[in-house]
Structures are given as structure tokens and as C-alpha cells.
Amino acid sequence: MSEEIKTQQTVPYAIAVLVLGICSLVFGCVFVGLICGIVGCILASKGNQIYQQNPEAYTNYGMLNAGRIMSIIGIVFGALYTVYYIIFVAILGSAVAGLGLLDSLM
């Protein structure tokens, strides 16, 4: 009586996506969070494609999903921070130009 012992592997890129998702949340208010989130989403997409080809061979799909969700949230935080930074620099630049501080430096 021989039974096949099926060994399941962790979904490819699951750990990397989870780490990148966490980093994108931790560094969400820095441009690094935006980059980590984008890379995490790309790797999550590749890992999901591999998982969908043979779901029985892999385990820890939830870890891949959690990392993907955290990466998406990190991208949103990074994008909001980038928009905030651009608006802040524009307001600061117009305030400096309005006060005439640039003329006194030249």
C-alpha cells in the first residue's frame, strides 16, 4: 500500500510580498514606501499566476494576499504623501516668491 506523500511548498514570492507590504506601510510617508508597494504588487501578481496554475501544490496563499493588500495600502499612502509634498512645495515656493525673498538673495 503505497501512498503518495504530497509536499506543499510556500507560494512563490509570498514571503517577499509580505515583507515588501509591511515595509510599504512602515515607510508609507517616504518615497521608499511607494516603491516597496509597487514592487510588492508586481511580485504578488506573479505569485498569484503561479498559484492559479496548480493550487494544490502550494500553501500560504493567505500570506501572499495579505502582502498584496498591504502593498496596495502602502501605494495609496505613498501617493497621498507625494501629492501632499508637491502641494507643500508649490505653496512654499509661491510664499517665498510673494515675499520677495528670492530678489534679496540675488
Give the mean pLDDT.
Answer: 87
State the secondary-structure class.
Answer: mainly alpha
Question: What does the radius of gyration come to?
Answer: 22 Å
* Amino- and carboxy-terminal Cα gap: 90 Å
| Main sheet: strand order | 1-2
The main β sheet shows up as: 2 strands, parallel
H and E string? EHHEHH
Residue share in β-strands:
under 5%
Amount of helix: over 70%
Number of helices: 4
- Gross morphology is rod-shaped
Strand tally = 2
| Low-confidence sequence ranges | none
What's the quick description here?
This protein is mainly alpha-helical and 106 residues long.
Task: Give the secondary structure arrangement, pairings included.
Layout: E1 9-10, H1 14-26, H2 31-53, E2 58-59, H3 61-99, H4 101-105
Parallel strand pairs: 1-2
Characterization of the model:
This protein is mainly alpha-helical. The protein has a domain at 9-78. It has four helices and two strands. It has helices spanning 14-26, 31-53, 61-99, 101-105, and strands spanning 9-10, 58-59. A two-stranded parallel sheet has the order 1-2. Helix 1 packs antiparallel against helix 2. It is rod-shaped, with a radius of gyration of 22 Å. The model has no long low-confidence stretch (mean pLDDT 87).
What are the key terms here?
106 residues; mainly alpha; 75% helix
